[in-house]
Amino acid sequence: MRIPAAFRRSKGLIGAILVLSVFLVALLAPVFIPEDWATQMDMRARLSPPTWAHPLGTDQLGRDLMYRVLLGAQTSIYIASAAVLMSIVIGLPLGLISGYVGRTTDNVLMRLVDTLLSFPALLLALTISAVLGPNLQNTIIAIGIAFTPFLARIIRGEALRVAQMPYVEGARTAGNSDFRIIVHHILPNIMPAVIVQSTISLAFAILAEAGLSFLGLGTQPPDASWGLMIQASRDYLDRAPWTALVPGVAVAVTVLGLNMFGDALRDALDPRAKGGS
Amino acid sequence: MSYLVNRLLSMMLTLFLISVITFTVTNILPGDVAMMIMGTQSNPEALAGLRQSLGLNDPLIVQYGRWIGGMLTGDWGNSLVFKEPIAPLLLQKMKASALIVLFSMSIALVCAVPLGVWAAVHANRWQDTAASSASLVGVSLPDFFWGIMLILLFARGLGWLPSSGFIDPADDIWGAMRHALLPSLALGLGLMAHLTRMTRATMTGILNQEFIRVARAKGLDEGTVVWRYGLANAVGPVMTVAGLQVGYLFGSIIVIESLFNFTGMGWLTYQALLNRDIPLIQASVFVIAAVVMLANLIVDLLYVAVDPRIRLS
Amino acid sequence: MKRRDFLKTTTALMGGTILYGAPAMAASHSAPVTGGTLIWGHSETTQNLDMHQTGTASTGRVLQNVHDSIVTVDKDLKVIPNLAESFEQSEDGLVYTFKLRPGVMFHNGKTMTSADVKFSFDRCRNPDTGAVNFEVFNNVASIETPDDLTVIITLGQVNAPFLSRLAENGAGVIMPEGSGEVQGTTPIGCGPFKFVRREFGNEVELERFDDYWGGPAYLDKVIAREITEPTVRLTGLRTGELHMINDIPADRIAEIEADPNLQVVAWFPLNWDFVNFNHDYEPFKNPKVREAFDYMIDKEVLLEGALWGQGKTTASPSYPTSASYNAALTQRPQDIEKAKALLSEAGYGPGDLKVVFKATTNYPYHIEAAQIMLEWFRMAGVDASIEQLTWADWLSQCWVDKDFQITMMNFFTLWEPDFLYYSLWNTEGAFNYRKISNPMVDELTAKARVTVDPAERAEVYKQVQQVVHDETLDVVLWFRNGTIGAQPTVMGLDTIVHPNGSNLRFHKVWLAA
């Protein structure tokens, strides 16, 4: 049985729909749902299983998990997006300079990047978060910094490849300035790789935010974030598994969507990587 | 040979940089070891005395020199909060983590390679779609979510496996395996999905290459073509990816070990961070980074052994 | 409702221990058996094992079995002889003479003499040791040892609480002379169990000390597995991997009580909690603002919400059965309108006041409590948010740097009120991390230190509590219950809880076949 190509291509579509829905929820939930619905407690309905009143059940303080997971989307998405943006802002110039200038600059920068890559990203984020103190902004910085070396490494590789292309050579002999070459010739050609890597990083950032909050170093209560919700569910796992399942599924769906979308994007933008499922 | 020398030299340099970064970052951690030792009973005089005796008032460069000197001569000092000598403590915890890291890596490789090959051989058929979809879901679930699901199913639900604790294999090999299985699975499932995707991608590429077509044309049976020629060429890239994942695993163990109360390196590092036990943080972060670097080096060397072409480039 | 019944019983038995579960009751009449290894699921990780240096309850809980103090307290919290066979205090309250019990053996085979006592006390008061209780010896002028079994301590000035501070291991522990170096990793004492080993973060092994002066314990060994996850501890108890656990998750106690295959030991109080204001933060300099916050908190609901009702609200932090417990004090009821009115009297309209509540993850129920209180603060028009701090950060920010606006903490209800009232509320108090400076409290707590008559002293402390309450220096919330869950085969659990409510003692605990 052959799977029709249209169906395979639909992977990207499904991914895009999932990602879009999650972003829409993150954007619109705060508009339609009053923010305090996520923190409202009902002491008579603690750890309640899904009921009509609480379609997804409640947590240990009787807070509605549906509202929490919907309103939590904005926190998780915001942190992840901002962190990835930050890693691009730092990583892009680093990678470009390193790849284009080469020689000693490249050696020094990449030695540093390689060193940073020896630290597991989560460990790095955890340490930075401990240094800066746990709050929303510092969580973004911690994840952003932890992801920068990856991005810098990939961009450097791409820049190196593009810099050796004949048209760049040509632009150089034509007397264009380095800055002009980087902005007009190299940057546009490495954008596909940057976009693909950003999508994948976004998926990892969502996981990292969840991981940090899970360890108590990310988002602060009573704000809802998916990682924080999973952390709170730990003590009630066997009694009220839905408290872990609801945010867990939310994380999984978002990351799944991002991965599907990222895969399709890579297939479309980067012909050399064809075949990655 | 010069490749090896080069590699080792750059390794030394990286190690040095790792030590500098570790030391610098941990030194700007807020909180004070003296305070942690004294807890809610601290008072200014006793604190000042303790700080002095711990050498916390010396200039940073002096403290770094003392630290790196100690690390090099095997004197890793004592954990300030727990009062244990650090070196044996780390060794003991590293053994525990090695157990689940190696266990999860084996589970992942043993399952992922055949599955990936199988998917590649049946590229674009239902077998491929099934394997690819499953592995896509696999990489999308956070490892602690896997952990929670495994605890719910195997520990709480079926009651087959313990959900927490570490047992030294030297004391009780069967018990050790039982305790290590769930955390290893939690670590390994995501990794397995990732490696399946990698194997499939690499194999698909290889199976489309000229020499495979030639082999097929020569009339070799498909099994030989796939497993002898195809896989032999895929081993290198897959191993590289697996090696790179060691770093990822050492990040994941922080969460997974704390979830399973599995007292290894991840758990220790997290405890050290929470307690601001600076010498312990420094040593464990340094050791983790060094182990990750070493793993990558080993993978590189193996890669050279498997694929001699690398040496030329 | 089960909880109500439970509370009623606890109230009736304030300061006592209750045993649930028929099997223990029936079997406790049979004669104790020697032998067996008890596996205990300990709720916390032990840290520095040096009894002088460790400030953590977790370590003290285990070391209670390894060490003994020079004096101790009975059920009525009266100081009684222990390693000292007798003690007397001079008329002027300045000279304490201890007659040591002869033939007390240390785990290293040596016999205890006055030299060991002098060594231990000197070690504790030496600032280089970093002993947490070193201020107990602040007024000590000299420690003399005229013979092997006599110790004479002379104070420079009267320190009424001195003796009862020696009734706990932190200051009163006796270690063999010269053992200072090894205490941190391999503690040596003269308690009923010898320390065998600790696998850090995993377990501590204790072994019976056959030459214990109080007669050998029944158990061969005690293994304390350190399992910090509450649900994991509970699963271990249910599956039989563990003989007993301390600190049953609050939401599960009713369920375990109802389980015929398990027994529950509950006692009261384990410790007490209070909400703190930083008296240096401009708004909290005004007593009206502090009072307003008190009116925002419904203590009963908070207890139910944060601790699933496992405790009892109180306005007095004194040990419930002690003379200084002020039963006349009552907590302010929740009254959001009144709180708003008080705030606007102080010049803060709705939304004008912004506060950050710092709570430590070391006590997960503090995080829950903070979240509940936050809702009430917001109802009263206060713009409030939470910052979760690790224990290390809480200590450095709130305790030492006093950089906070609102926080909460718990303390042991020690039998010695000076430890509470002077340390916590006197301007000079070692634990006054709220920057409280109240002349009336200062005067009263200083007066209590030199008041030797116990009844008179108790009255003084009751007045201190009245001021703390009237001025809302802090908001005292509740006493929290302590709990142990155990297999029916574990016997002698009625003796396990030390009077301080935190330490566990396995001397008289045994396992039925």
TrEMBL record, chain A:
InterPro entries in the cross-refs: BP-dependent_transpt_permease (IPR050366), MetI-like (IPR000515), MetI-like_sf (IPR035906)
Domain ABC transmembrane type-1 span(s) in chain numbering: 73-262
Any one GO biological process: transmembrane transport
Membrane topology qualifier: Multi-pass membrane protein
Alphabetical keyword list: Cell membrane, Membrane, Transmembrane, Transmembrane helix, Transport
Pfam family, one: BPD_transp_1
Regions crossing the membrane: 12-33, 77-100, 112-132, 138-155, 240-262
Protein name in UniProt: ABC transporter permease
Source organism (scientific name): Thetidibacter halocola
From TrEMBL, chain B:
Superkingdom per UniProt: Bacteria
All residue ranges annotated as the ABC transmembrane type-1 domain in the record: 94-303
GO molecular function term, any single one: dipeptide transmembrane transporter activity
PROSITE patterns to which the protein is assigned, alphabetical: ABC_TM1
Compartments where located: Cell membrane
CDD domains the record matches: TM_PBP2 (cd06261)
Keyword Transmembrane helix: yes
UniProt keyword annotations, A-Z: Cell membrane, Membrane, Transmembrane, Transmembrane helix, Transport
Membrane topology according to the record: Multi-pass membrane protein
InterPro entries xrefs: BPD_transp_1_N (IPR045621), MetI-like (IPR000515), MetI-like_sf (IPR035906)
One Gene Ontology cellular component annotation held by this UniProt entry: plasma membrane
Main location: membrane
Chain segments annotated as transmembrane: 12-29, 98-121, 133-155, 175-195, 246-268, 280-306
Record has Transmembrane helix as a keyword: yes
Annotated Pfam families: BPD_transp_1 (PF00528), BPD_transp_1_N (PF19300)
Homology family: Belongs to the binding-protein-dependent transport system permease family.
Protein name per the record: ABC transporter permease
UniProtKB/TrEMBL annotation, chain C:
Alphabetical list of InterPro entries matching this protein: Peptide/Ni-bd, SBP_5, SBP_5_dom
Chief localisation class: periplasm
Signal sequence, renumbered to the chain: 1-26
Domain Solute-binding protein family: 78-429
Location(s) in or outside the cell: Periplasm
Pfam families listed in its UniProt record: SBP_bac_5
Keyword flag Nucleus: no
One GO term (biological process): peptide transport
Annotated GO CC locations: ATP-binding cassette (ABC) transporter complex; outer membrane-bounded periplasmic space
Highest taxon of source: Bacteria
Keyword Transport: yes
GO molecular function, one term: peptide transmembrane transporter activity
Keyword list, A-Z: Signal, Transport
Family: Belongs to the bacterial solute-binding protein 5 family.
Name of the protein in question: ABC transporter substrate-binding protein
Classification lineage: Bacteria, Pseudomonadati, Pseudomonadota, Alphaproteobacteria, Rhodobacterales
